[in-house]
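Lab meeting prep.
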Amino acid sequence: MDIKVTEQKSELALAYKEHATMENIVAVIDKGLNMTINHLMALGKQPAGAPYCCYTNGSEDFSEFDLELGFPVAEEVPVKDGMYMARTYGGKVVESMHKGAYDTLEETYTAMMRYVQENSLEMTGVYYDWYLNDPDNTPEDELLTKVVFPVR
């Protein structure tokens, strides 16, 4: 697994936020990403990049958290239904590419957390998953997710 420190640029995004637990995470992600892409399509706009899920305000055991779900956009768009304009994190990050089913992402997270510790980096408590291909037409073992930890 290739894990590296790099710089990520901040991007303007159409986003939606909702509290989630491990029990309803899939439904919340589906809801947020479907809402935002459908809104962009209704406006005749295309996303400027891959969809993302940003985890914030996680409980100590990571059983619940807030999820920001969205798509980068080239320009601000009108918002509705709890959607808002956001900016993704820009700055120093640890990143890795996860290949495989979403339910195996924990393996990548664990390896990345170990890397952060071993390299004396400080986590910010924010985590990003960038979904690089579509699970509706990609075999599970071919799914690509860029995992990003903002660090100090």
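Slide two material, second protein:
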Amino acid sequence: MTYRVSITTPCWHLNGVNTVSASLLRGLTSLGVPGEILLTDTTPRGLEVFPPPEDIPFRRLPAHRRIRAHLKALARDLASNTPTVYLPGYDYRHSGVSPILPDSVVIVGVVHGDDPLHFDHVARLGRYWNAVVCVSRLIERRIHERFPELAERTLTIHNGVDLPSSAPAPRQRDDATLRIAWAGRVVREGKRAMDIPRLLDCLEKLGTPVCLTVAGDGDCLPDIRLEAARHIAAGRLRLLGAVSNASVHALFEQSDLFLLTSDRNEGLPISMLEAMARGCVPIVTDIESGVPEVVRHENNGLILPAGDMPRFAKEIAALAAAPQRLADLSAEAIRTVHHGAFNTRAMARAYKDLFDRLVAEAARGAFHRPAGSMQLPWRPTLRDRLSLLYRRFVPRPQKPA
């Protein structure tokens, strides 16, 4: 049975969920499954800075002034050409249409991270979804624990990334300077971006020549620029700001190591997989979700305690002094993504198998969506807004290592 796939996103900002959505559609297209990304926000935020990929069908939902009318228009759109497989992704504002969609629209909710927002999404709407996909086995276990009634409909499909046209050669040092890449939102909470100046201080003390390049933007970028001024002047730190996916890939191709400093809520980091696919050795933190399912310590990367920058620096210095060890870790990192479950090809096949089964079940009436009402987006009160502003401009101090 033929069907179409519609992945909604509020806008096309560069982030892990949008990146993996585009990769999934590429993979599904290669398997003969048509799909599109449906932009649901009423303003064209993000499109002017980073235009959508030209090889992916994009469409914008016509805007309505009132949110209730806008949601009803989305429901009509999804139900207009069934069977449809609908992935709401992180489109929390518009996924409230789930309860009113007909059974011919198959809904697959994807839990992309292990933060409270994703679990709240499942709590509100999971009962209306045909399946719940988790990007790591840890997230799947937590869904089973919190929502046992959804256990039979919950499974893990790992994120996959587009591979370069040819597998890269393992890293061979061609100069004394070790090249390190860091990519993501440059923020304190969760990402621990302020560990970057601390790491460079430690590497400077050890006398290890490095060039660390940060690709991304965020609230603490000015603080890093101030605190690491001498490293910038010495060429040990480059701050690129927000750049395109192609520029990030080029950075990974020119780097020896990929650095992940996060202490939580990563799900399965897309940037880490993209870097490994291009030969970077991942030097990552010991967060529970996703990372341990990809990185095997001393086999295809290194897993170290979050916040322990002296330990990070010591291990990086040891790699700088052992080029064969670096090459061996790089070769295993490449093999993990190119020949495992973490590339677009493997991800798309797993999703297609799931979609085929769910569409067939819906066609024979094996799934009936419970009765429910459309859920309007949460509207913050003045107290909520003040709390959000406080957390944005007065960040919590990071715990010492």
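Talking points for slide two:
The CA atoms of residues 192 and 252 lie 20 Å apart.
The chain has a mean pLDDT of 91.
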